[in-house]
């Protein structure tokens, strides 16, 4: 048959998955081969990813993909969260367990960088939003450490996985842009920035682009997974958000997207970066996308806030009420009945990045802004979802204004698609129709770029998206309610948000 099977390895901060996409010119379907938890571990004060456990999950997933099929895999693509990396010795040994971007080692790094490069100069050169964990700041914090001093090579997480699977090193461009060491105009290294800060760019293997070949599976991987030889690995948008944006089923150019999972990444697809001072002050990022695009977006705390609340309630929860409320579906039903917009927090505030005590931090933020403190898990959940919807609206309004574009439709993709309340609140807040789906947009974007590189399908992003639109289940939410209620809620946060953006 003409059907081809591509495996998407997609590692998110909450779970890893190996998803098989079956592709033919007019057809596209997904099957989840394996999903496994992603649980970071704190060791001697530092928060690490369990990288070998994640790699084992990938091998198990590929084994499952090899088993339940009559057709062999045509290829494999890898995408993961951004910014983090592993350091290798000259012989390829991993020198240290990769550090989690939520670790606090980068505290003070921005101030150190500012001694050499102003935030204006850094933004003009890289177009990247200030986030404390950008690779640039991680490397500044690690300067002089034994691992970085000994390192022969640095591989970003998807490139590290790809190296372990194939033995071939490379640096994929979309994810490289999140290091804050890429110039979005040339789509190449920002050498002057690296030189000024004493960052050694020769640690990074050469750049590769989505669609480029990235090696074939090593024999030991074939033996372990039972896959038939040879299976090529193809570079995709290895930043999960880059693949998720490919996976947005837009049919018109006037769309905004929100990739909602652990994070909400909300913005526009552009063909050139916006590097203005206004854009910097609004903390917008110009990450690089597939096919020469720019992902002009803002990082919003996302469902992480809810995940962390649920974790806190589970740890503490002994009463019957708490036990039922920690069931996500029940919790969301209760939140849907809670008073709308009773209190909102700034879901862009870096104060919510670190793990632990999320309900308390949310309560503090409500108190600080003179709003009622949520009293129950349902009220706290409603506060989180109202706040996310408000932050979505603000990001989309700002992106449109700063880029001079008009938005008529909002696409929501990622795990948040399963959260109907969040989708409806986002439509209400934006005053625009929301098209929700697919939830596994990153895996779909990953599969589509592979399928195109293999010649199974053809066309640009709009053709890939048309295929998504015609094959994936989508749900539309129309805006409802009193729009001015959102303006009033936004006004309660106005001052706090402006202060943060200016710093
Ligand atoms: P990541 O890629 O960052 O690991 P996902 O895109 O998988 O994240 O999204 C995970 C989030 O999706 C969860 O934190 C949860 O809030 C939401 N989610 C997943 N499934 C459901 C569901 N059935 N109902 C409500 N929310 C869900
Ligand atoms: C989402 C994501 C996001 C990054 C963050 C570190 O998974 O890749 O785009 O900013 O993780």
UniProtKB/TrEMBL annotation:
GO cellular component: cytosol
GO biological process, one term: rhamnose catabolic process
Domain Carbohydrate kinase FGGY C-terminal: 256-454
Keywords: ATP-binding, Disulfide bond, Kinase, Nucleotide-binding, Rhamnose metabolism, Transferase
GO molecular function terms attached to this record: ATP binding; glycerol kinase activity; rhamnulokinase activity
Database matches in PANTHER family: L-RHAMNULOKINASE, SUGAR KINASE
Similarity comment: family membership: Belongs to the FGGY kinase family.
Protein name, UniProt field: Carbohydrate kinase
